[in-house]
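#dry-run=false #mode=assembly
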Amino acid sequence: MERAKKIREGDVRTASRLIRNIEDNIPETRQIIKDIFLHTGNAHVVGITGSPGAGKSTLVDGLIEWNRGIGKTVGVLAVDPTSPFTGGAILGDRIRMQRHAEDNGVFVRSMATRGSLGGLSKAVGEAIHVLDAMGKELIMVETVGAGQQEVQVMNYAHTIVLVLVPGMGDEIQVLKAGIMEIADIFVVNKADRDGTKKLQRELMAILDMSPNRSGQWRPPILTVESAFEPVKFRKGIEAVATTILGHHRYLFDNNVIGDCNRRRSRYELNDALVSCILDPILNQLIVDGEMDRMVDKLLQGETDPVTLAEEVAGKYLQITAD
Amino acid sequence: MERAKKIREGDVRTASRLIRNIEDNIPETRQIIKDIFLHTGNAHVVGITGSPGAGKSTLVDGLIEWNRGIGKTVGVLAVDPTSPFTGGAILGDRIRMQRHAEDNGVFVRSMATRGSLGGLSKAVGEAIHVLDAMGKELIMVETVGAGQQEVQVMNYAHTIVLVLVPGMGDEIQVLKAGIMEIADIFVVNKADRDGTKKLQRELMAILDMSPNRSGQWRPPILTVESAFEPVKFRKGIEAVATTILGHHRYLFDNNVIGDCNRRRSRYELNDALVSCILDPILNQLIVDGEMDRMVDKLLQGETDPVTLAEEVAGKYLQITAD
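#status=ok
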C-alpha cells in the first residue's frame, strides 16, 4: 500500500520502478496494480500513431507544451522504437526532449516491445493506470501503427490520432490494414511539403467510402507545418490539441464514453487472462522439462503441435474444448 | 485423409481453401494439419522482410523466376499489407505478379493480420506446412518487419533476408528494434539510388559491433539495382538467390540446422498452446455471459482485471500459479 500511496502522490522514482517491473513482467507488480486500480479512470488517454518518420514525437512534444500552457498535467508512454522519447532517434531530437525533464507536471516513459504474446499490450495498459493514478490528466501513448500489437495498444485510448506525412506513396496502403478504420483524428504533418493536397484528397475519399461513420464523429483532417516554421507549427499544434479536447467532450456529450470504456476494460481483461492462465502453464512446462520433451517429439516427427497442445490442455484445463 | 492426400498431390483449390480456413481459425482444420504434418519438413523456408516500399515483392518476384529457372517449385506467403501479392499495391505491380498464375510450380497466397494474440503467427506457421506438404521446395514468407507478430513470423524461417533501400533516414533505427539481430542476409535494394554506399557502410558498422557473430555466419550485404535496369537487376537477383541457397547449405554443413528446427518447433508449439488452452476458456466465458459480467464489475470500479483473471484461472486451471 505504501508504494501505491507514493504513486498517487506522483512520486516519479516509485512510478518509474513500477513501470520497469511491469515491462519485465515481475509477479510482485500485481498487488500494486490492484491497489492503484480503484484510483484510476480519470485520465484522457490519447493514442498517437503513424509510420516511422511521420514526426509523431515532434507533435507529442508540441502537445505537451500546449497542454502544460493551459495547466494540464501530462503523461507520455513512447512505444515507438524510432521515437526520440525512447532514445531511438538522432541526438538533436533527444536534446529537445530534455526540456520537459525539470517539469513535475510531465512524466515521460518509454516502453520496449519485450516479451511475447500480448505482453506489450498488457504492459502498456498497466503503465497507463500508473500514470492515471499519478494524477496525469492527459496521457499520450505514442506508437508506430504497423504491427498487430501496436494496433492493439490503441484499444486503450479514448482518442486515436493518426499522423501522416505527404510524399510517402505506400503509406495509405499500409494504414488501410487496420489503423485507418479506428482513427478519430487525422493529422497531415510537415504539411509544407509537396503532396499535402493529394494526401488530404485521398484521406477525404477514404472517409467518404467508410460505411460506419454516418451520424457519428467524422474524423477531421488537420494539417501541421513542420517545426521549421515555428509560428505556423504552433497554430497547427493548437488546432490538434483543441480537436483532441473536442473529441473527448464528444464522447461524453453523446454517451459514447461508456462504450469506449467498456471496450477498453474488455481488452484489459483479455490481457490479464493471458497473463494469469497461459503464463503459469508455460512456466510449469518449462520447469518440468516437458517443453523440451515435446519439442523432441516434434523434431522426431512422432506427432504434431496441435496434438501435443491438446494433451497439455487436457492435463491443465478443467473444461473440454468443443 | 482425403483432403490431406489432395494437398500432398498439390491440389491448388484444396490448399487454398485450407489456408483460408486456417486464417479464419476454423476448428475442423486441426485434423487436416495433423494429417499433413508428418509429410512436412522438406522445404527451405525463407523470410523476406523490410519496410513498406523497400521493394520486397519485386525481389520475391525475381526470386520466383530464378528458382523456377533451376527447376525448383516455389511457394509464397505474403503477410505484408503493402505487397502486390496481397492486392495492396498499385495496378502495375499486380499485373506483373499475374505471370506466375499459370505456372503449376508456383503457389502464391496472401494472409491477413486477422484475429488476435499470436493468431497471425500460428496461421502463417500452419500455412507453411500446407505449402511444404504440397511439395514446394522453396517457401518464401514476405512480411513488413515492424510489428512484434511480424518479427515472430520470422521464427518459422530457416533463412531471413532483410531488404533495405537507401535514402530512408529512420530505417536503420527501426530495424535495430529486433529484425537487425536475426537477419542472415542483407539486401540493399534499388541500389542505383543515392545513399547506397552510406547505407552499406552503416550496415557494415552494425555488423562489426554485433557481438554474437564471430565464428558464425556473417550476414553478407548484397545490392540489387532497381528493375528499371533489367540486366543489372537480374545479376543482383542471381546473387541473392545463390546466397540464400548458400545459407541453407551452411546450416547443414555446420550442424546448425538442428538448432534452427528446434527453435521453429518450439515457436510452433507455443502458438498451438495458445490456441488449445486460451481460446476455449475465452469462448466459454463469452458463451456463459461471464465476460460481460466481469467487464461490468470493472466499469463499476468493484475490482481490477488481475483479480478477475486470477479468479478465472482458479476456476479453469488445475495448477496454481506461484
